[in-house]
Amino acid sequence: MAYGIKYRLEFSDDLENGKKIEILKKDYTGSVLPLVGTSDPVEISWEGDDDFYSPIKGSSCLINLFVTEDVSYDNFYEFNEREYRVNLYYKDASNIYQIFWTGWIVADNFSEAITTKPFPITINALDGLGLLKSFDYPIYTTQVTGRTFTSTLTSILDYLDLDLEFYVSNDIRRYQNPSNSLFDELVPQFQNGWFKDGGNLMDAKAVLEMMLRVTNSRIFQSLGKWYIINNSSYNEQSLKDTISTYTSTNHVPPTGIKASQTSYLVANETEAVELVLYNYLGVYQSTIDVNVLKEIPTNLKPLNNSFLQTNLRPLEKYSYKIDLSQNDTNYFKNGGFEFGTISTNTILNWVTYSAVSGVSAAAILDNVIVLQGNNSVTTTSSNTVLANTRKMLTTTETVMINSQTLANVFKFNIFVSHNSTSAVQLYYIIKVVDNSPDSYVDIWWNATTEAWVTSEFKNPVTLEEVNVWEEFEFDIESFPSGYDVGVTVEFYEPRVATVNGFNAFYIDNVSFSYTNPDFSDFYKKKTKSLEVIRKRDITASLSGVLNVSDIKVSNILYSYQAFLGGISGDYFRPRDNYYIGGTSYNPGLMMPIEEITTQQVMNDYRNFVTRYEVDLYNLEKTPLGLHNKLWVNFGSAILQDSLSCYIDSMTYNVKKNTYSVTMHIPNQNDDIANTLIKNYTN
What we know:
By secondary structure, the protein is mainly β.
């Protein structure tokens, strides 16, 4: 979409550094009109809470203006949230405007005084990260292979329509491709989407949070780019390289990591982190090292005696729970028809039929009446003929069955829109195609005799009710021995006693899954979760507990074939580096990614975590961003922290050049001793 600048305000902060805010309108081509700002025209805030591992740091922009006799503005509340875009700029050392923040005006947060002119108005704009909950996880309508975290991240950010480049900083690497960025190597087995309850797609925000939790990361906007950084190891790259070389040479991790970090910080007063840059399409651009360090009070001056220190208690236990409810026992992929495009009537792994007299019935993907999720398949075709030959819906390919010895359960749900209570029937076929060299004949399931037969058989289903969803479940015997089993299913158009009053027929949630041969519940009792627990090896009494749940991807569970979110590979940190180019290395230093990130959390919380709240005045031309780290360094005789701080939340008053900051000190010293527990629960 094209946007034109409709309003502009240029001003300077307290240090006479140039600033500019612009409001752009969709398809606007007129002249640029003035904004009249108050004494505090712009304020940017990044949200935060007590959990500094919270993965999403959304931001907002508050614009304070005056309506005067000569200057008025559009009624922003009359338009949708993508009608007006806000850009905030700062002048760099070369006196050139650079983007600092961008977002969209949110009309429901517009306010103005009811009084005579001049009167103030307040406009609120958001970067959109917090609004991702209103979007479904972005799905693919064709089978996708190799959909990386980078690809998924790009698809989610695309909802925001900001088209920002993004940086990734995470020093965890995959053994199989150690030179690649982590997000390019994480590829869940199931490529098309995740569900929260079996039938409804997860929202985009939940999926984004999950990916960030898996990698111990956070996302935020800073200086006009998205940053995705590790919550624990966002620090000097040259030290990481030194540590990596030590481990690969000596085959054991070094000791005294924190002391080395402190020595480097004091000696160099810099902290250059490695950033991998992607464009807004998710295409790799470059890898650079950038000094992100700012010092207090050298670069930023504390104000108002506001320096408040708190200490967060150390952890006794960290619980990381992986949800296994999506264990895939349904052989018919996309049985809820979520992965499809209504406009083109395409459905992943299924085909609908166009109306051809005597051959097929017209069926389409639809979102009007559904059982779960967003889609079902519907037809308005029907007939009164007993011997129904008009296909409506079939699987597009033969589905291979892993086990011949287990029995199966066939389920589907039907909704009939009908103005009468006349009888409605549906016919279905389950066909087994042999793929073995022995060339066994095709067989069909006969639900009447409950046996496999060698001639085509259409199974009738009689609906008991209309205008409600009705579930049908059928026990299917195990397959004959010797078959290399491939299964297809076909649905035929409904048969009605009379076509008068018949409106439409809907089908949703088709599944074909294994069960115990005697149809008992033995195989239906599935593990619901895997809880990865880190528990401190310490005799002292600790009470700190941190819990994370609803994770649907796992490296630990990659070999569990029924698990949809399996991630392959072996992972390591710089301190775990294997022996590159040698004949021996310590494979025990490589771990599943869950074991690495849970260890990082325990390391940070080994002792009381120092956290600061402070008001700061920026002494430099470039504004402070959330990607910066802050080092409290009043000198070793007064107060000199051993490490720099992550910024967890911040409010920036642009005119006054002041920042209200909450920040904490990480601690990735030598790994703290703890016991790793893997608890499977039903």
